[in-house]
Every structure is written in C-alpha cells, then in structure tokens.
Design a protein that fits this description.
Elements lengths: L2 H6 L2 H24 L3 H9 L5 H10 L6 H8 L6
Length: about 80
C-alpha cells in the first residue's frame, strides 16, 4: 500500500492536507516578512513540510511568537474560563 493508493482513493484527504498546508504557510510567510526574517521566509517558501516547519517557526523561532489567543482573535472563538 503506497502513498499513491492512499491519496488516490481519498481526494478529500488530499484537499484537507492542501488547505492545512496553505493556511500555515501563508501565516508563516506573512509573519516572517513582517518581522524581516529573510532566512526563515526563504526556508518556509522553498521547503514543503505539511506545515511542520511553519508551525516550528511560528510558535518557536519567530521574533514575535504566535500565541493561541492571537489565533482565537482571528476566528472569534471564545475560550472557556
């Protein structure tokens, strides 16, 4: 059972992975550009990692680390107190 049979039989899975990757890549590229972190921008742009490198950058290495509360403010989901 190869990847082609897994993804070939599950176009919805391919779509979900694609959307996941595009969202995190876009956020990471935007933040790297805004914070003038050119090396990270190039790494994120060139390497396809299913969002792993993007998440590592956003939550670990960005000059201004991404916080879950910031994401919450974008999508307006209240947190339980």
């Amino acid at each position: 059972m190869g990847l082609d049979s897994i993804f070939g039989n599950n176009p919805f899975l391919v779509f979900v992975i694609l959307v996941w990757t595009i969202i995190w890549k876009g956020i990471a590229l935007w933040r790297a550009a805004k914070l003038e972190q050119k090396n990270w921008f190039i790494i994120i742009l060139v390497i396809s990692s299913l969002g792993i490198i993007e998440l590592v950058y956003l939550f670990g290495f960005a000059k201004k680390k991404l916080k879950f509360k910031e994401i919450q403010s974008w999508i307006h989901i209240p947190l339980k107190k």
